[in-house]
Amino acid sequence: MLTLNVGDNRPLDNWSMTQAAVLVVTTNPNYVSARRLSAAYLATNGPEHGPVGFGAVLVPDSVACPEAPPVNTLKISAKLDYLRDGDVIRISPEGRVSVLFRHNATFNAFLLTERCNSFCVMCSQPPRDLDDAYRVDDLLRAIPMIDGAREICLSGGEPTLLGDRFFVLVNALKAYLPNTSVHVLSNGRLFKSLDLAYRLAGCRHPDLMVGVPLYSDISSIHDFVVQADGAYDETIQGILNLKRCSVRVELRVVIHKHTYERLPQLARFISRNLQFVDQVALMGLEATGFAKTNFDDLWVEPVDYSSQLMEAVTEFNRSAVRVKVYNHQLCTLHPSVRPFAVQSISDWKREYLDVCSQCDVRGQCGGLFGTSGDRHSAFIEPIRLQGVTATMSA
Question: Residue 344, SS3?
């Protein structure tokens, strides 16, 4: 979910929106009249045709407005130039635009809540204790407007804190987008309740996986990372309950100073005790949120944990546990690890350095987090294959 500040957009004098609107974007001025109230007309060539009946009219900042613009016309910043037909947006009464869904994106994430029962030292979405129930209301309005998607991620905060509303959302995705895979990012702790795991399984979503973080084979290390005593035991019980109910589970490990040294031991622990999980993701650090605040206490160069990462990947591969390496640049990985690397960074925040233009495998590389600014490995350099053909994704 992307958000632009109110100051980026300028409602015109005819602005009369009194409550938030969730609208699908269209560039067709002849959009079917019966559905116009639920659509935002994107006037890329100016609203010279005077379209009427739309929920809003969006005019790019570079396009002139007529003297008598349609009702609820909003001049939008160049930061929204990527808007296309089929995107779904939320407009607040003040003209604040949030992009809920991008039709052309390979990956979309729905932020369900900012509340969380953990306080992870590297959290990219620091939790806030507030009433944000409106988020699910907006998403329930948005889902019927989505015209297909390969995958949707449900994130937080902690989605399971929503209780009944979480399951309403999962069922809505199943009903309206049955061919879209759903990836739920949860700390897994509330699934210590077998009833909750049974309830998720009871939704019978055809393609759902829960991504649960497990940061160490030692409980005290995991509890320190998530800043919650007893979280390790709750997480392990949650994983066991989910798999008991035949819910697919991905284990996620963010690699930083407090987790990298015991990666091989964690891999052996998972391979021997949790081999039934569906996959393991070994993830690079995104330097935003708490990770930005605690950067000096967290950052370790990928080259400095190369041996631990290689040993962990080898252990998983040998034990027939599916493993993927997320959020790493291929040049920072040992060649034996590169086949397990995937392009996991969302396309809207994936960036590359100038030096990457000389790389023979840039198109297969995960790139860098644009949200991390200049906080990245100092060892990024082009890979030159010199006529050798290789596949870089597992």
Answer: coil
Q: Return the domain boundaries, the chain.
A: 2-98, 108-339
Pairing, β 368-369 against β 208-213? unpaired
Neighbouring CB atoms inside 10 A of 91's CB total: 24
CA dihedral sign of residues 9, 10, 12, 15? positive
The partner residues of 283 in beta bridges, in order of sequence, read 254, 326
Please state, as a whole number, how many other Cβ atoms lie within 10 Å of the Cβ of residue 13: 7
Q: What percent of the chain has pLDDT over 70?
A: 94
CATH of domain 108-339: 3.20.20.70
42, β-bridge pairs: 58
Distance, in Å, from the CA atom of 85 to the CA atom of 123, rounded to the nearest integer, reads: 33
How many angstroms separate the CA atoms of 47 and 8, rounded?
Answer: 20
Per-residue pLDDT tens over the stretch 190-231 = 999 999 999 999 999 999 999 999 999 999 999 999 999 999
- 305-345 pLDDT, tens digit each: 999 999 999 999 999 999 999 999 999 999 999 999 999 88
- What residue has token string 């599916």? 322
DSSP 247-311: -EEEEEEE-STTTSTTHHHHHHHHHHH-TTSSEEEEE----STHHHHTHHHH---GGGGHHHHHH
pTM of the model: 0.91
Helix and strand numbers (H, E) in the chain are 9, 17
The secondary element (H helix, E strand) that includes residue 337 is none
Strand partners, 326: 283
Size (the chain), residues: 394
What are the tens digits of pLDDT across the range 16-39?
A: 889 999 999 999 989 999 999 999
